[in-house]
Amino acid sequence: MTPTPSPVQVGTGPVSFADVIAVARDGAPVSLTAEALAAIEQARAVVDKLAEEPTPAYGISTGFGALATRHIPTEMRVQLQKSLVRSHAAGSGPEVEREVVRALMLLRLSTLATGHTGIRSETAQLIASLLSHGITPVVHEYGSLGCSGDLAPLSHCALALLGEGQVRDASGTLVPAAEALAAAGLAPVELGAKEGLALINGTDGMLGMLVMALTDLEVLMRTADIAAAMSVEGQLGTDRVFAPELQAIRPHPGQADSAANLVAILRDSGVVASHRGPDCNRVQDAYSLRCSPQVHGAARDTLAHCSTVATRELASAVDNPVVIEDRVESNGNFHGAPVAYVLDFAAIVAADVASISERRTDRFLDKARNHGLPPFLADDPGVDSGHMIAQYTQAAIVSELKRLAAPASVDSIPSSAMQEDHVSMGWSAARKLRRSVDGLTRVLAIEVLTAARALDLRVSTSSTNEMLPAPATAAVIALLRDRGVAGPGPDRHLSPEIETCVELVRSGAVLAAVESVIGDLR
Q1: How far apart are CA 113 and CA 110, in angstroms?
Q2: Membrane-crossing residues (predicted)?
Q3: Class in CATH terms, 8-202
Q4: Which helix (H) or strand (E) element contains residue 352?
Q5: How many helices (H) and strands (E) does the chain have?
Q6: How far is CA 232 from CA 228, 278, 310, 382, 454, in A?
């Protein structure tokens, strides 16, 4: 039985990457600290004071967006908040994944806890309660322009706080929000002044997806080094090009780390040692082998920048208007450009790392380039096709990743009667990045699968025991074989083996197998 994860406490400071993952993916319960509740109450007092004054204050006693010029009388302000949430909950398309919605809710709560939004404490507490009870509002694929934040997705979450709309309960069953709240012993809230805007005016959806993607890509970048090492080894490549003194003369930190990983993974490889002597007539390996650290390293450095931006965003209070000391000020911090740009950068990284992985894989299958291995690594070429179509699958995914690498953030369609005349499209960038991460996972899995088969063939066709793989790569091969992925032989149904390998890459099991032998990779 899976143990219940430790609660995540949301205070006035930023939540961490680990907090986001714990809540979004592991279902961790959430609570607000006393410090956060005090900050919320202090900001709320400012909003209540402004609501009583005759001078209009945006978001408190006015309409929204292009309708901000209308002053709303006191007796209509409760309806104003309901109307805002109901009208903005206008999403369409498939349901967004549970982990995305939970991340979105946590990050909105984190902004509310800063004391800059004017939310009431009971409203903030209800968000924490929904997360803790596993109640997930239904959010749809389309509806956010990434400015003024993720309006439609956040509005669907806010709608659940009113006891309206549809949610998934802890078991995943689709039920009316009012029914789920009642079953959990929770009561819906009636929003007060400013609370509607405070609940929906943030970049939390795109940021949550960025954090999760970066967490996944951290594992995939090290797994890419493993796959590359297996390909270098299986294709009788050299490890000398990865020497630290060669990396030092082009001092990119990601490149140095990737090269160091390759050296460590290939250490004590009988295959590499077998052609290291003076009899080897290979002058240079192909770019896809020799330049792996340069490509993987550039990817790492780009993702490091993305992580820096994400960390800054986690420390931000994104709302408009915001409570600053004893006043409320309009601002543009809801614009998603900082997040949208790095979401697009990360999609470029995923596409290019997948591209070089596919090229390494393809070299295994061509008898003119695989240095003595059978065509397509087939058992009986002609009768058997081996991994021929596995490479087709890689190629199809890489082609899709190239399309997904086209940036969403360069587009903008004006909205709200030209009041919101430049938007980030960050939500769209985040949605395509999730597909990119999945695609990269699959491409790397096929490279690992193919390289493992090639290394087994090297061993089986060698007349001596010298052609043994490195201990680290041997651990990956053993993992695959232990999980039911058979070694070389006549053709069989390949898709289940690919899916097994995909899950081993996605879960970090391939990385763990290597690190169990040689220690942590960089």
Answers
A1: 5
A2: none
A3: mainly alpha
A4: helix 337-365
A5: 20, 9
A6: 6, 19, 34, 26, 11
Please, are residues 176 and 166 in contact by the beta-carbon 8 Å criterion? yes
Beta strands 8-10 and 30-32, pairing class: parallel
Tokens describing residue 211? 């954090």
- Which of 304, 291, 302, 303 lies closest to 246, judged by CA? 291
Residue type at 447 in one-letter notation: E
| Domain spans of the chain, in order of start | 8-202, 209-276+285-412+424-461
Structure tokens at 468: 């043994």
The packing angle between helices 495-506 and 426-461, to 10°, is 110
Q: With the C-alpha atoms ordered 509, 511, 514, 515, is the resulting torsion angle positive or negative?
A: negative
CATH code, residues 209-276+285-412+424-461 = 1.20.200.10
Side chain identity at 278, as an amino acid letter?
A: P
| 63-115 confidence digits (pLDDT tens) | 766 667 777 787 787 788 899 999 999 999 999 999 999 999 999 999 999 99
Regarding beta strands 136-137 and 166-168, do their DSSP bridges make them parallel or antiparallel, or are they unpaired? antiparallel
CB neighbours of residue 432 within 10 Å? 23
- Cα 70 to the chain's mean position, in Å? 41
Catalytically active residues, by annotation = 58
The alpha helices in 366-425, defined as continuous H runs, are 388-404
The sign of the torsion formed by the CA atoms of 401, 402, 408, 413 equals negative
- Whole-angstrom Cα distance, residue 15 to residue 23? 11
CA angle 168/172/174 to nearest 5° reads 45
Stated length of the chain: 522
Considering only the C-alpha atoms of the chain, give the largest distance between any 2 of them, rounded to a whole number of Å.
92
Q: In the structure encoding, which two tokens stand for residue 242, read together?
A: 């990865």
- pTM summary value: 0.95
Phi first, then psi: give them for residue 17, nearest 5 degrees: -55, -45
Residue type, 84: L
Q: What is the pLDDT of residues 227-280, one digit of tens each?
A: 999 999 999 999 999 999 999 999 999 999 999 999 999 999 999 988 776 666
Q: What angle do CA 182, 187, 192 make, to 5 degrees?
A: 150
300 is written with which tokens?
């790492």
Question: Which residue is it, tokens 């809540």?
Answer: 23
> At residue 289, what is the residue type?
L
Q: Is there a contact between 274 and 466 (Cβ–Cβ < 8 Å)? A: yes
- Residue 176, beta-bridge partner list: 166
Say what the pLDDT of residue 1 is.
Answer: 58
Per the CB < 8 A criterion, the answer to whether 211 and 311 are in contact is: no
Q: What does the buried/exposed string (b/e) look like for 357-387 if buried means 16 or more CB atoms within 10 Å of the residue's CB?
A: bbbbbbbbbeeeebbebbbbbbbeeeebbbb
